[in-house]
């Protein structure tokens, strides 16, 4: 390897814990394949390791040079690799990235998520003690607070499984490291989904228990019903967070109750704007040199998220068109003042959008429409995984396809313009970002836990199939929306503008 490779991680902690975290990483290096020896000076917060193939790794704690640019107690972990093979470098950095969160960082997240972290006080009788939980939730700091609350509500770590969706989150490696290293929770990658489900069912069944699914995107139950039907009876209910997950259940006969936080009044009224705003902010962050004001934009899908995205873009002074295959939503977009059209192709040809934001859920935009775009147009998705755009069509219709790293994928169409699919078509609000602020997402995470408690307790209102009315009633009865209003509504005695 001709050049040294460097990886840095900033984290917040006291000096003693910072050194402890470094020592933990050094201990893991001793078990990294190919490592011959590890040497260190704990007092100097410096460790090094040598590989069989000649590679040298180095770990040390440093301080950011400009302390005014970071929060108090910020430490910088600096990992450097030299001389060895690419495989050795990959093994070294894979270990280094497994840095759990510090007590300080978790404490900060707990304070930012008072509803979720306060659930154990609401139910001190540990209502989840008799179930397992299988989770497919976004790997961000807020997720760790939800996990801590589920454990405090009675779930045993041995009866919990987490599916890592393999999105490029800002802190995905650290979240996984925390789940495994601090709690001993089994973490499986989405690419091994069926094996992870089977392992979970086997472990929890052996303990004489059944499980609740807590999903964000419809990953688990469709896979169970399609590929592991004999395991379906193990699950007592599903809590689903997203409308894309609900769509994946369309046409399926559900043998268990669905607690649909995704379709709840609570989520629809409060979270949609936050997701839209985060999506636009992350788009602007990734494209800081673009000028979008005054430019044409197109929003695909005028549902809860799409309508808010259209409004945010309009507030950013873009000229916004919207399209939805549902005529009722199309009329709603028209009457709100957005440009609309009965056919997508005609709308794209007439409007020539510089920015296309997909909020429809699946297959909303393909090669035929892309050929009608102006040169340099940008496609952005807000929906689960990379299903929004017909990426295979774009690839097949391109003379050149270029991986542009963190920006995404560039497509030089053979008979059309060059375009950029930002974030490779993955949901932009999670692309190397934490999406919503913790205080914003707190209510929805708490709602997921409320659903799990209701299912575990056998609430008689929750029957096999959709239970939207019951979901709304149970969420209202839980008191979490009242608490949210007390926290962020007008002061006591206030309420007047």
UniProtKB/TrEMBL annotation:
Q: Does the keyword Plastid apply?
A: no
InterPro entries per the UniProt record, alphabetical: Adenosylhomocyst_ase-like_sf, Adenosylhomocysteinase-like, Ado_hCys_hydrolase_NAD-bd, NAD(P)-bd_dom_sf
Q: Which Gene3D superfamilies match?
A: Adenosylhomocysteinase-like (3.40.50.1480), NAD(P)-binding Rossmann-like Domain (3.40.50.720)
What keywords sit in the KW lines? NAD, One-carbon metabolism
The chain positions of domain S-adenosyl-L-homocysteine hydrolase NAD binding read 271-435
Q: Which cofactor does it need?
A: NAD(+)
State the PANTHER family in the record: ADENOSYLHOMOCYSTEINASE
Q: Which family does it belong to?
A: Belongs to the adenosylhomocysteinase family.
**What protein does this entry describe?**
S-adenosyl-L-homocysteine hydrolase NAD binding domain-containing protein
Query: Which organism does this record belong to?
Result: Streptomyces fragilis
Its taxonomic path starts at:
Bacteria, Bacillati, Actinomycetota, Actinomycetes, Kitasatosporales
